[in-house]
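the two lines:
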Amino acid sequence: MNNLFSAATIFGIIGMAIRLAMPYLYAGLGELFNQTAGCFNLGVEGIMMMGAFSAFYVVYQTGNLFLGIAAAAVIGLFMGLIMSLISVTFKAAQGISGIGLTMFGVGLSSLLFKTLLQGTVQSVAGFAPLKIPVLGDIPFIGETFFQNNLMVYLAYCLIPVCSVVLYKTTLGLKIRSVGQNPQAADTLGVSVIKIRYLCVCIGGVLAGIAGATFSIANINMFQEKMTNGTGYIAVALVYFSGWKPKGVLFGALLFSFVNALQLRMQVLGINIPSDVAMMLPYILTIITLVFVQGRDAPAALSVPYERSEN
Amino acid sequence: MSKKYYPAAVKQPIKQLQMIDITKQFPGVLANDHVNLEVRAGEILALLGENGAGKSTLMKQLYGLYQPDSGRILINGKECHFSSPTDVIHAGIGMIHQHFMLVSNLTVRENVALGLKSSRQPFLDLNIVEKKMMEICDTYNLKLNPRAYIWQLSVGEQQRVEIVKTLYRGADLLILDEPTAVLTPQEVDEFFQILRKMAQEKHLIIFISHKLHEVLAISDRVTILRDGRSVGQRENKNLTKAELAQMMVGRPVVLQYERAAPSVGDVKLKIEDVWVRNDWGEDQVKGVSLEIRSGEILGLAGVSGNGQRELAEALAGLRKCSKGRIIIDSIEMTKASPYERILAGQSYIPEERNKEGIIREFDIMENFILEDHDKIPYSKHWILNFSNIAAATQKAVDDFSVKTPTLSTKVKNLSGGNVQKLILARELNRNPKILIAAQPTRGVDIGATEYIHRRLLKQRSEGTATLLISEDLDEIRALSDRIAVIFEGRIIGIVDGPTATAEKLGLMMAGVQEEEQK
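prediction for all of em together
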């Protein structure tokens, strides 16, 4: 059993990676919308924590999982609106306002946890694995790919949806143009403000859902700071992706694979310090970011738009 | 949202546009003072004026970006109010901005489709867009690849994309803001043919410019603005450059300079087989050798993008040479830092004056002492001496007639011509042995251009060795003692300045050697 290279272990790691990638996909794709439209949202982590708490609390009270997801989405939307108000309308520096939003979200979720749930960790019945007929019965492969819960399947379905929206629709063309050259878009009658609000809000909704996957589609409990930096990794993933949905998928899988590997190595008792193992995914992120070429970056990323007076 | 693709049949074609008594006040400036303008179908109207004369403000009111304080805009005799670019596009007016409004990592057809309703909403219909776009291209003889990315296109091609974009939206009236500023002489000819074709097709064209020969070459009528007022409306018949220049500047302007024969001395700057790479690591300057002596102006002519920028940056110490040597005053300085070159007596007027020549957020005094702030009299023991700084800056501002309200005005509030005069004042204040001047008058109005040219000639008589890099052939011919032509990173030939013809230089700029021309 101690063999890292047995089929069971390898498929186990892959399966775990597929599930671990879920929050990165939701949050990363949301941030992709943000950044493609030229908005840099560092508040993802805070939105995720608020999403995680609101989904958990609603499910705890009602037992209805879909209501939980809806609550996370609404809270995400609301926080996206705050972010767009600050960074699009009031044109504040986006890096700082994002950090502020994260501190607000993380703090408020802890506060609510202490007041509404008296700070005790409890569990709920989250999304159960959904076995896909026939495919789910294939040995190893079925277990790895086709016995996941609904939110996992949805995360992967979101990739082609985002690709189509960004590259095949008139809306996507507007989004991309607003992130690259807002002046040009403005002269053609595209409302830079509306498009940016829309994208920051889409990002907020997806980040809220990403948070919900922690509390009701994975560990099914709520703890303070349980997202543990996932939101920041999602922001980094967008750079890693070269601003392409497929890149987000690849990055999320690579990252969660390394993460799953280190978790499994700890379980198997392979003799490396667990702190080093836990650093692995983060080191990987830093290394990849150094080598990522910024050529496809939205040219107007994090620059507030103003009609020039000259 | 209203429907945004308007087939020409639905909309009333524009036959006449009038702007009557337009007045627009900005804080502290009366930008337009009862300005009148009229243009009719099939006509090319030139709107002539110096920078800051109010041309752009007037056109932005027509394009719905500003609202006039008073005055009326009439289309076919009916009054119109525009509150946004969308209204204007709907009415059949299109504007081609001086800085192109294109999204560089989208394709040509995506740029054309941007902001328009698609025939199969919400999805894009790029193939249909492409077909309609190519019909327009055929009508006006515009050569374009609809699937190329904007960043792959030359400046001339990008301008064609702008034209197609405008026509695709059903524009009858086209406003062209300084459209030739970025084009090569050959591209300008092509562009004028397109304009004439559009006029034949009953479009109305407003051509904004401060280049006199172009205005004379292309327009049917000229409206001249000065200090916010319309000072003349003329048919383009028997007009002369001198007449136009006088109306535009308000005083007679000298367009040809008298130059004494050069009294050349020692070689001050020697460039030996210099190779320089561009931002993508490709060789852009491929073995350039030049010698510039004290008391002479060497003109470097060439179409933009043939290595001039990289060479200038290498000479300034901002870019590494991959091969070759740069020798200043017989000392090798190939690897010297910009600071060491400044100490060696070299001055540099960069091509991108707003990005590299000044710090926009700094005031005039701070910009004036950028290079010498650590030396007496500007500072001592690390402490700035503001009274000395103010005195020196005041003198320079007076000497170079920089128009500014105060010395502590931020440089971003100055016009392009005044910024350039300030840079010139700073660079010449040190009485340099060597002056590298890259596009010193690009986008600068005619009055300031005249002034800058006179200063460069004065510096020449004082013994400075000047390398004048310019894409403006008139400027090169008016100032240079010798002219070197650069093509694809190599010097294709060096000719005598006073006798070189525009045709000969034009051919050399296109890569034809002097000998081959015979």
